[in-house]
Structures are given as structure tokens and as C-alpha cells.
Amino acid sequence: MSWFLWLLTPWSSLTTQLGLGAAGLGVVQASLCFSWGALSDKSLFQDGDVILGGLFPIHYAESRERHNFTAKPLHKPCTGFDVQGLKYMYAMAFALEEINRDSTLLPGVKLGYHVFDSCSRYPWALGHALTLVAGDTNSCNLTAPHESAGDKPVPLVIGGAASSTGILLSSMLMPFSVPIISFMASCPCLSDRRKFSNFFRTIPSDVYQARAMARLAMRFHWNWIGAVAVNTDYGRLAIQAFQKEIRGRGVCLEYIEMFSRETIAIDAKRAALTIESSTASVILIFSWYTDVKTIILELARRNVTGKQFLASESWSTSEHLLQDPAISEVLAGVLGVAIQSSPIPGFENYLRSLHPVSRPFDRFLAELWQREFKCNADSAFSGAERLLQTASLPPCTGAESLKEVQHPFTDTSQLRAEHNVYLAVYAAAHGLHSLLSCPRRGSDPGKNHTCFPPKHIHSKELLQHMSKVNVTTALGDAFYFEGADIKAKYDLVNWQRSPEGTLRLVLVGRVDGFDLHLNESAVQWSTGSSQVPKSVCSESCPPGTRKANRVGAPPCCFDCVLCAEGEISNDTDSLHCNPCPPEFWPNVEQTTCVPRQLDFLSFSETLGITLTTVAVSGATVTAAVFVVFLHHRHTPIVRANNSELSFLLLVSLKLCFLCSLVFIGQPSVWSCRFQQVAFGISFVLCVSCLLIKTIVVLAVFHSARPGAGSMMKWFGPELQRGSVGFFTTIQVIISTIWLSLSPPVPKLDLGFQGSKVTVKCSMTSVVGFSLVLGYIGLLACTCLLLAFFARKLPDNFNEAKLITFSMLIFCAVWVAFVPAYVSSPGKYVVAVEIFAILASSYGLLLCIFAPKCFIILLRPEKNTKKHLMSK
């Protein structure tokens, strides 16, 4: 189309600059006749005070050829007959007759029409448009169907069934300010008033159609779609509008197949091969039904079924496709956007009453009669005016009638483009009403009067009044132009299989502006079921995963990646995973954050049970030793080792074993405070007893030396008890100050990200805890040092040796405790401290009391003073 417009632009500029008017139009028309040959002479004329022009695609070329621009273009004759285009023409005629009968809209003015067959070709449409505007029917050797047709230029043209045709007509007639009202040109580009100021239309812009289709794709989660479009302004700009609507909304086009009508046979094979090999199951097609049929027939030949087609308004209601059984398997389930259907009261009776006898100059009706009734109705014409080769056809009897015939021509159940033509005629009539009517001075202000004769109407004046048109239809709907456009209203239709196996058109929804209303339960899909078909490049990523785009692939093609540890996604097709708050952790599916499970050393788990058993066993053994010692308290081995301190040591060891139980279980404020105090005081009491016992051993042996007899008076029982109490009191004071100033408190230790959070006693004051441990360590080291010095003192049973071994174990355990305590994670910190308590307690118990119990219970003969005193 663009090259053709470029070719004609100089003529348009010439007529504008020279101000040639009708003469200039004649120059352009003559040029067209010279370049393209004689135009089609098929036309219909009805005289009137004001003549409206009409261009309708009543015929079409059944085959086309691509022009190579090296020779004069050769166009094959238009032999295809389109009943739909004929119905458009009669919709215009019916509307004009209805307006002429109306005494209020254009009183005293009779409207006529001059209609040409555009043959669905640009030069034909343009040449006829120039003929209409110039009022000269003989420029290309046309024969006027009526003697008065040649001297009546039209002020307005209704037509331009294709967007490219509408662009051409508007561009060529704009210098002459001739209004164009199209009923099918839906290209968004025609909304530009700077380029197409004389253009109006009664069909919505494709922007609304594209948006409706994009919303259908998003509604049914079709993110992988194929697109096929005719390589004209209609197809290209419709695809562009669709791409604009889906941009950034998760919908992608797998391919865009463009085809030309001149090479439709070759292009249809290429498009069918692409559709067959593609992974997209939803196919969007913007084209005229004749081209769609060629592609679908190729798909049927390849046995390609199960594809879900989205149809544009140009073919979504085509009876030619619906009634063709050869392609019914391929097109079952089509979901399309259609021009809104509206009734035209009386139109069906008008169509059925048409007859060549009453319309002797109507060549189009005669051709319909010949095709449908197989008889020669061309008796009104002669010679070169014959429409068809009818020599073999019998003459019509006159009894043929459309009144009882079921035919697409008389079917008015769904008037779509016909209603647009009907609206266009009424819009023109209201524009004329606004132009021809003005209040006359001194007259009734409620009445309108003609200001000047209607035969002197100029198209420029009419163009100024067209933008003021405001029509209320017979159904009560308001109709007005917003620039070139009207309010968008569509029907949503579905091609469903009937019980007889044929396809039928079912209304399943509507589009009102940008609002889409669809009854999903009423839709029958290409699969033959109510299950919505899938058309995706990649399956949706479920919650718990995120989308990861593939390198070099469209955004609709992606991989699903599990969220990282500690992250969730709770939406389908999530682009990112979100981290959980510190106190929360993802569930197993990683779809939501749940409170992290509290983790602590409990009595019910294996480690807790083991440590509890060991602790209770130690306390039990200590109690048993206490009983043994108490029972044999008068024996030499018990009395020789300071029985009072031994009993006190056993009590402190039992407390050490039992204090470890305080560390098990969920920490609380009081348990955190008590466990460290109990631990510190119990071990100080234990180590103090050992220290005093060691000092007593040293004092006893040193008192045997000459001059050292007075040493033992300083280490009597009272002083021993007092010393133990003194050392223990220091620990009590340290613990009291620590608990008063900064006591341990329960704290959630988030630690490393994990599903559990450790509850532990936090040492808010490291100094306090260090002083408690340090004081125990000081006493233990002092005891170890003194016991080491006393290990070789003469006696058969020297307790200093046992204390040395026990303190070595004690110190080794607690030295190893420090790095283990610092490096242990979570609840194992508590387990390490309990282990240290139990290990050191068992070390003291076994090293000190096991040998004594062995002698008491198993070697009673050695439990004598003589044996103990022997060297």
C-alpha cells in the first residue's frame, strides 16, 4: 500500500497547489485510468437532492500476482462474488430510503446514492472515489447507469472496507475536504486527526480489539502465542497494538508470520509449516476471511488440529468459513472478537422483497439472481452490459423470490458490519441536518429551517459539521464521534460444534470500551471440552520456586529454581524469593515463613536422657558411698582420712551431680540464675574440702618432725569446717554480686540460619562468669599443687596421691572445657558444660572414694590401723 500512496502523492499535492478542484480530480483519475486500465463499471445509482457515494467490496479477485515494477501491472478480473459485500450495499440503500421516509431528520430533502464496486483493490477504490467526487463517470469510459449520474458530485463517501483503502481514500480526498466514513477500516493509525482530518468510522480502532485479545491471553494464562497477519496496515498495526498491550505482562509471541495477498498460496504453506512445528497452541490471526481460508485449508491438508485460534473481527463471524466442512476440524473452538451485532428493524423484509423486476438497473441484484436461481435475469441489459456468460442459462420466469429462501444474504440474525453501514448513513444524514438547518429570524426558535438549497452543498462545509454528529439509534444507544472514532463495543464469539457436526456461532461475552465480560463456562475450546487449553513456553513456577530466565530466550521461557535456604516465594511465577525474618524459617515447601522451632537441651531427647541418666547415676553412686562410709565410720580407713570432710565432700559431689540437671530443660529467668550459682557453689564446696584435706595431710606429716608438734593445733576440726565455709562464702559473695549486677538471662540465639532457634542462658556479664570459674580454678590449682607435694609422704595409704590424680583429671576437664564451650553451636554449649561437670565429678568420686570402698567392702583385712600405719 505504501508504494501506491507514494505514487499518488504528487497528484494530490498538484491538485492542492494549483487549486484545480474537480478538474484536478479529473487529472488524477485520468492518470489512474492510463496506469491501471479501465476500472470496473459495476455501479448502482439512485437520484436525489443530495447524492451520497458508496464503495463496497462486492467482488474480489480469486487469485493475485505480485508486482515486480518492471512491467505494467496486470490485474485479473474480479470474478469472485461476495454476498456479504452486497448486503453492505443494500444496508446503505435501506438506510437512505428509511431517512427519506422520515419527515423530521431532513424535511424536504431527498437523499440519493451512487455506489461502486471497489473489487477489494486499491486502484479500483481510489478511481471510483475520484469518479464520485468529480461527478464525471466517463473519464474511464464508464457508462452511467442513469443519465443524471454524471453531473452530481458527491459531498461524502461511505466506504473503505480495508484500513489500507481507508488510508488511501482519506489521503487523496483530504485536499478537497471530502469526508470519508468507513464501516470496516479499524487501523489505529486512522485516529490521527493531523494526518486524516477528513476520516470518520463506525468501527472501533484495533487498539481496543488488541487489548481485548491481550486480556483474554492473560486471563487464560496463555503466555506463548503465535501470530499470523496480513502484510497490510491492518495486519501490521494490529500486531503492533497487540504487542504493546502484552509488553511487560508476561505474554510473548513465539513467531509473527506475515503474508501478502499477492502470494497467498506460497505464504500460506510457510505459515502452516510454522504453526505445525511451533510449541504455541494458541494462534492469533489478523486477516480477511478469504486469506484465512487459504491458510486453514493448508493446515487441514497437513492434518494440524487442536490449535486454539483467536480471531480478529475481520473473520470471526465469516459464514464462508463456518459452513465449510473441509476446515471444520481445524477451526472448531475458535474464540474471536466480533463487531457488535445490532438489529436493523425492517431490514430482513427489505432484503426479501428485492427483485430484479422492480430494480431493472440493479446489476448486482441481477448477478445474485443468476448465481442463486441459475437463470438469466439480465434481460434489462444488452451487449457489453451483460454481467455473466448466461447463454446457457434459461431466462428467469419472474416467480423467483427470496421471501422463502434460507440464504446468507437474507440472514439478519447477526448484523454487524451491516449495522456499521447503517450507522454511517445516519451519521451522514445528521451531518447534513446540522449543515442544512439554522434558525430563521422571527421564526419559531423550536423549529429548524433550511438556510440554502441542498443542491449547493460543499463537502468542506459538511466536513465541519460531521464532528458534531450525535445520534440516538433505534435501540436508544448514543452514537457520536470522538475525533474519528466511536466508543468501542464488541461481541466475543465462539465457534462451537453442533450436534449435526457443523460449526455454529455462539455469543459468549462482550467488550465495552476496555472492560471485558466473558462467560467462561459457555466456551467450547479447540480440544472439544470445557478445559482451557495451555499455551506456555515454560510451565508456571509453583510457590517455593522462582523464575530464572534462560539466556537468549524470551522472558516467557524460563526455568524454575528452588528458593535458597531461608527464603520463600508464596506466589506462582514469582520473580524473586524473599528472606524470612530472623525469628522465622520457611516451611518444608518454602511457601511461607513459620516461627522457628525453639531448640534447647530437653529431658526427652536422646542426649538429654543420656546426661540425665549419667547425672542421676552419679548422685546415686555418691549416695551409696555415703551410706557405706556412714556404716563404716568407725573403721580406721574412714577415720584416718578425716571422716567429717569426707562426708562433706560426698555431699558436695552429690550436689555437683544434681546441679547438672538444672542445665537441662527450657531456660527460664530463675533456672538461668540458679544453675550457675548451684554449679559454682557446689564445686567450690567440693574443691574446698579437697584442699583442706590436702592441707591436713601435709600438716599431719609435718607435725611428726621435731619441733613441729604445735602445727596440728591450727588444723583442728573447727578450723577445717571454718576454712571450708570461708572458701565457700567467697564464692557465694561473687555469685551474689554477679546476680545482682548482671545475671544470666534466657536469650534466643539465632546463630546460623536454620529451622531452629536455640534458647540458652546468655552471660550478660562475662566478668562474673569468669570470676566464678576462675575462683574454682584457683582453688583447684592450689589443691593440685599441694597434693603433688604430698604424694610421696610415707604411709601405706596416702590420700594425697588420690587427690593428685583427681585434681589432674579435674583440671584437665575444665581446661578442655573452655575451647569446647566457645566453639560448640546451639544447645551443645549446655551439653559441653554438663559433660564437664559430670566428668570432673566422676573423676573426684572414683579417684578418691573408689580405692577406699574397695578396701572397706572387698579387703576388710586391710582396714586396720596397723596396715594403714605400715611403711
Care to describe what's here?
It is a single chain. The protein is an alpha/beta fold and 871 residues long. The chain has 4 domains: 2-62 and 73-202 and 345-385 and 408-476, Response regulator (Rossmann fold); 206-341 and 488-522, Rossmann fold (3-Layer(aba) Sandwich), CATH 3.40.50.2300; 545-595, no CATH class; 606-869, Rhopdopsin 7-helix transmembrane proteins (Up-down Bundle), CATH 1.20.1070. Helices cover 43% and strands 15% of the residues. The chain is built from 24 helices and 29 strands. The strands form 9 sheets. Strands 10-9-11-12-13-18-19-20 form an 8-stranded mixed β-sheet, sandwiched between helices. Strand 16 (470-472) and strand 17 form a beta hairpin. Helix 19 runs antiparallel to helix 20. The longest helix is centred in the last third of the chain and has 35 residues, at 669-703.
Q: Write down the overall mean pLDDT.
A: 83
- How many distinct domains? 4
**So, the CATH homologous superfamily of the largest domain?**
Response regulator
- Give the strand order, joined by hyphens, for the main sheet: 10-9-11-12-13-18-19-20
Over the alpha carbons, how many angstroms does the gyration radius reach? 53 Å
Count of helices? 24
**SS elements, strand count:** 29
User: So what's the oligomer here?
Assistant: single chain
Cα(first) to Cα(last) distance is 129 Å
Helix amount: 40-55%
Q: What is the CATH level 1 assignment of the largest domain? A: Alpha Beta
Quickly give the structural class: alpha/beta
What percentage of the residues does DSSP assign to strands (E)? 5-15%
**Unreliable sequence segments:** 1-23, 34-38, 141-148, 380-389
Spatial shape: rod-shaped
CATH architecture field of the largest domain: 3-Layer(aba) Sandwich
Biggest sheet, open or closed, and with what strands and sense?
8 strands, mixed
Per the CATH scheme, the topology name of the largest domain is Rossmann fold
